[in-house]
């Protein structure tokens, strides 16, 4: 499971909120693992009952579809909580730290709106419409299957609100790096590194040049030009 973004980044401003989020992460992780195990069991028994026992099971097909829907949406919420989904961050990385945070917050707001309108509201309508449509081989209805949509939407909404709060407080990076150990520094840390590079202070006495945490590169030429422009 991915490392929590708040670890080793900035100053933790909402410890109780972070603890609650980690607890939810762990619970969702084990629920997703249990659903995956249930899906494997259902599919394996479906094949074995048909090919080995020669008595095809009547419930495994619907059960596997039900579990697959819940598994897919639960895993979607889990990965979103870990900020593991694919994101195109090329333009956002070109922005200054404040603009990068603003862009990240807007992304989270868009996700929250999608979760409320499509997943929660739309999922509730679909659940109500299918609540009385019984499955032929299971003692449940289509509504129980569609219920995974609003449940997943609520989880994604909670994660999105969490990241809006934490990004605003600069407690987590605006966007996660590809390498987990290369988290960008907070705005004050970026300014400290920039000041050190511009002042020419290095431990080895070499010409100041390097990459400021957060993706901004400061070469010796740009350092010299910025120092001369002061």
From TrEMBL:
The chain crosses the membrane at residues 27-48, 63-81, 102-124, 144-165. Residues 186-230 are annotated as: Disordered. InterPro entries: DctQ (IPR055348), TRAP_DctQ (IPR007387). It is found in: Cell inner membrane. It is a multi-pass membrane protein. GO terms for cellular component: plasma membrane. The keyword Transport applies. The keyword Cell membrane applies. Its main location: membrane. Residues 217-230 have a biased composition (Polar residues). GO terms for molecular function: transmembrane transporter activity. Residues 199-211 have a biased composition (Low complexity). It comes from the Bacteria. Keywords: Cell inner membrane, Cell membrane, Membrane, Transmembrane, Transmembrane helix, Transport. GO terms for biological process: C4-dicarboxylate transport. Belongs to the TRAP transporter small permease family. This is TRAP transporter small permease.
